[in-house]
Amino acid sequence: MLTQLRIRDFAIVEELELELAVGMTAVTGETGAGKSILVDAIGLLLGDRADSGTIRSGAERTDISAAFDLDDLPAARAWLSERDLDSERECHLRRVVASNGRSRNYINGVPQPAQALRELGELLVDIHGQHEHQSLLRREAQRQLLDDYAGNQTLANELEDCYRNWNRLRRELRDLRQASSERDARLDIVRYHLRELAALNPVEGEIAELESEQRRLANASELLDTGQRLLGGLTEGDEDSIADRLNQTLRDLDALSRLDARLGPVGELLNAALIQIQEASGELRGYVRDLDLDPEHLARVEQRLTAAHQLARKHRVAAEELPALRARFEAEMDALEHSETRLETLQQAVDGALDGYRDRAGQLSERRAAAARELSERISMALAGLGMPGGRFAIVLERLDKPAPGGSENVEFQVSANPGQPLRALAKVASGGELSRISLAIQVITAHAARIPTLIFDEVDSGIGGGVAEAVGRQLRKLGDNRQVLCVTHLPQVAAQAHQQIKVEKRTDGETTHTQVLPLEADERVAEIARMLGGLELTANTLAHAREMVEKAASPAAS
Q1: In the chain, N or C terminus with fewer CB closer than 10 Å?
Q2: Per-domain residue ranges for the chain?
Q3: Which SS3 state, helix, strand or coil, does residue 235 take?
Q4: What 3-state DSSP class applies to 203?
């Protein structure tokens, strides 16, 4: 429910703060006072296209904000929660439009695109009249309203789940069939690739080992020459090796240590070094002895590396990935060889899923047909009392050729506003006043199943008067018993039916013009309705008539 609206520098509104209540609220005022400004401001807040022309003359920006009570709005709370925008009980929307036409939009203080305002707005407010927020014009909303009226929501959700499951399985089957049509050709290719890989028989980690061995074999001569030279320098030189010099150093140090025992640890360290050199020399001697100078072995290694790299380039993989590639081809061949079994199993699953969908779709179609007949009759009867005698309303169920998430039929609301006129889609009704009254009839009849808590009717009483106007007012008041209804009206018969009333006034100081909105107390309401009845000059009779209208509307008998 809309609880608070703040407007600053919008059209001819300088600053306005309005507290709104449950029930029906009538918005009245003289022609040209700006009654529809409230509706336009709410529309802008709910994502209407921003226009710098809406900024009050002399101001830099328009700033509109509103607060909504979410106690009875699980869908809106879920929408906010999914986007991490949830709050405790309230939702705050704000939109700021600058003079350059750009806008900044906020949901609970977090910047959001205008599309987010539109999406959330459809869960909060429905504006009836010549406005974009008429949800009843959308086929999806029409189907949902019919299902809500019939209590079909659980079945409709099950149907949508069945459709998604069937569609997923169907796509899998299609892909598998497509693959199967190319199965034999692909199987030949895979088998050929596997024969090539089997001939090479790549082993995990083999490439790194072969490359290391190739480097060693290709450089064997250098390794041998250098190894022998190093070996001579370590231990096998002619009295000039490192080992010979260390031995001589140890002998000299041993003689000195007899003179000073403190040199003993130095000798121990040098002796350890000599041992290390001798062990290193032994390792190096063994390496040189075992070094392979076999050119034939080198040729075999290089030949295998070349074959591996050529095969890898063919498949556009690294040579190290050949074992994994072989495994993938083996898995593919297994899948191809068993695809017929998979096709049969998947076909059975698709058929079963389609049977489940058709079963629920059939149940839903029967329930929709029964509810459509009943709802069409009730709304047609309501139209007669709203100034549309002879008007007909029908809910048409158009059978679909193939399964759809919403069921086996399209749901379309159709109306004939005048006797003799054919039924047309609700979205094609030309008259805004007629559309508003049709929407009102639908909303009154389906109020118990409604999802949107706040309804705004802009000039719903256009082109009517007298008893019809009073009937419209009564229906709006009835709708306000369990919804929040804001009605912009110029008819006293409608305004008198409201639970509360606000007056829009346009004032000027000779230089500037601005609009103000005033909640009316009981006596002020009577005076305003009297003005609507008899003009600016209020007589005792007019005031008495106005008071009678208000009291009659509030009496239990009137309802």
Answers
A1: C
A2: 2-129+423-554, 184-337
A3: helix
A4: coil
Look-up of token digits 């199967």? 180
Residues 6+ apart with CB under 8 A from 162: 353, 356, 357, 360
How many Å apart are CA 473 and CA 476, to the nearest integer? 5
Query: Which residue has better confidence, 252 or 398?
Result: 398
Q: Tell me which of 437 and 46 has the higher pLDDT.
A: 46
Exposure of 131 in the CB half-sphere (CA atoms within 13 A)? 29
**Choice among 122-126, 180-184, 486-490, 529-533 with the minimum mean pLDDT:** 180-184
Q: Which residues of 290-326 are buried (b: 16+ CB within 10 A; e: fewer)?
A: eeeeeeeebeebeebbeebeebbeeeeeebbebeebb
Is residue 33's pLDDT more than 70? Answer: yes
- For residue 19, is pLDDT > 70? yes
Q: Which of 346, 352, 459, 358 is nearest to 402 (CA)?
A: 358
| pLDDT at residue 289, as a whole number | 74
Locus of tokens 């529809």 = 36
**Cα 363 to the center of its chain, rounded Å:** 30
CA 238 to chain CA centroid, Å, is: 86
Confidence of residue 89 (pLDDT cuts 50, 70, 90): confident
Class of domain 2-129+423-554: alpha beta
Q: What does the alpha-carbon distance between residue 282 and residue 48 come to, in Å, rounded to a whole number?
A: 90
Distance, CA of 477 to CA of 550 (rounded, Å): 12
Question: Tens digit of pLDDT for each residue in 440-484?
Answer: 788 778 765 667 889 888 876 666 677 778 888 888 898 888 889
Contact assessment for residue 492 and residue 457, using Cβ atoms and an 8 Å cutoff: no
> How far separated are the first and last CA of the chain, in Å rounded?
23
pLDDT, tens only, 484-532: 999 998 899 999 999 999 999 888 777 777 788 889 999 999 999 999 8
| E strand segments, 369-499 | 392-399, 409-416, 424-425, 454-458, 484-488
Are 97 and 108 a contacting pair, CB within 8 Å? Answer: no
Q: For residues 478 and 450, what is the distance between their CA atoms, to the nearest angstrom?
A: 14
Q: Cα Rg for the chain, rounded, in angstroms?
A: 44
Residue 103, token pair as written in the block: 């806008």
Band the pLDDT of 131: cuts 50, 70, 90.
very low
Within 10 A of 17 (CB to CB), how many other CB atoms are there?
Answer: 11
Q: In what order do the strands lie in the sheet with 500-508?
A: 125-128, 454-458, 484-488, 23-28, 500-508, 513-519
Q: One-letter amino acid identity for 294? A: D
pLDDT value, residue 227: 73
